[in-house]
Design goal:
By secondary structure, the chain is α+β, with helices and mostly antiparallel strands. It has five helices and eight strands.
Length: 214
């Protein structure tokens, strides 16, 4: 009887093993993750630019164009004039490298000092909200057209300092030999109620009392 019982147990064990062999895939029992639906065609990282089939134009890239990136990266160093007390001081600025560099420089000046510059004691006499209407350089004279806000507030000293800031900022360029002012498109000969005469081009040296000693 023992021999027949042992034989029966052996046969049962072999049958169970065969059943498990058909139900489970080969490999380690620890490899329980799902298999990919299809094998990847390449292990190289995918290109960010879509590749069009032969004979078709490639679709536009969703990212910034190379032209836009180059234009954004093309900048140049320029100088604006801020104030420390009643004295003009130079401050560097990076602006887009374009043909109208004078206009970009005046825009940077009108934006005022940075937080770091304010912390270092620098300021501006140009009223906040002053905008640039245009800049024309002809025969060496730069005519800068500013909004009427430019002549608001402040006494004679404040008015003189703001004129000096704009004048010296433009006078740095070789193409400029003098500066004239216009407000809202109208050329002026007298600036503000303080009666500052501006009937001819001025230069940075016109404000020598507020420029640092060489």
């Amino acid at each position: 009887m023992a021999s027949r019982g042992a034989t029966a147990r052996t046969l049962a064990t072999l049958g169970l093993a065969a059943l498990l062999g058909t139900a489970c895939p080969s490999g380690s029992a620890d490899d329980a993750g799902p298999s990919p639906s299809r094998a990847p065609t390449s292990t190289a990282p995918a290109s960010t630019d879509a590749q069009a089939p032969a004979g078709e134009a490639a679709p536009p890239s969703a990212g910034p164009s190379t032209t836009a990136t180059s234009e954004t990266a093309a900048t140049t160093e320029t100088t604006i004039y801020l104030l420390k007390g009643e004295t003009l001081v130079k401050a560097g600025r990076r602006v887009p490298k374009v043909a109208a560099i004078g206009r970009e420089t005046v825009e940077a000046l009108l934006a005022g000092p940075s937080r770091a510059e304010v912390g270092a004691g620098l300021g501006t006499a140009i009223p906040e909200g002053t905008t640039l209407g245009g800049l024309v350089i002809e025969g060496g004279t730069a005519t800068v057209d500013l909004s009427r806000t430019f002549e608001s507030g402040g006494g004679t000293l404040g008015m003189t300092l703001r004129l000096a800031q704009v004048t010296c900022t433009l006078d740095q360029f070789d193409s400029v030999t003098g500066v004239r002012f216009a407000l809202d498109g109208k050329l002026i000969t007298v600036f503000s109620g303080e009666g500052i005469i501006l009937d001819r081009p001025v230069t940075c040296s016109s404000y020598g009392a507020h420029t640092p000693s060489p």
